[in-house]
Amino acid sequence: MAYKIITSQCTVCGACEFECPNAAISMKRGTYVIDAVKCTECEGHFDKPQCVAVCPVDNTCVPA
């Protein structure tokens, strides 16, 4: 399963884009999105998905 960003809650801070070890997060139409094909929930890299760990707004990065 991949993660997704709730666009209505995203502050477009950019913290998640650079923390993603799979380069699955990118800017699209003024907000960040997660490419479900590239997202591995950081398995093999970190204990917790980094988008969740660095996002300043709770429940913005959630399982898809």
TrEMBL record:
InterPro entries: 4Fe4S_Fe-S-bd, 4Fe4S_Fe_S_CS. GO terms for molecular function: 4 iron, 4 sulfur cluster binding; metal ion binding. PROSITE patterns: 4FE4S_FER_1 (PS00198), 4FE4S_FER_2 (PS51379). It holds the Pfam family Fer4_7. Keywords: 4Fe-4S, Electron transport, Iron, Iron-sulfur, Metal-binding, Transport. Residues 1-30 form the 4Fe-4S ferredoxin-type domain. SUPFAM superfamilies: 4Fe-4S ferredoxins. Its cofactor is [4Fe-4S] cluster. This is 4Fe-4S binding protein. The lineage of its organism: Bacteria, Pseudomonadati, Pseudomonadota, Alphaproteobacteria, Hyphomicrobiales.
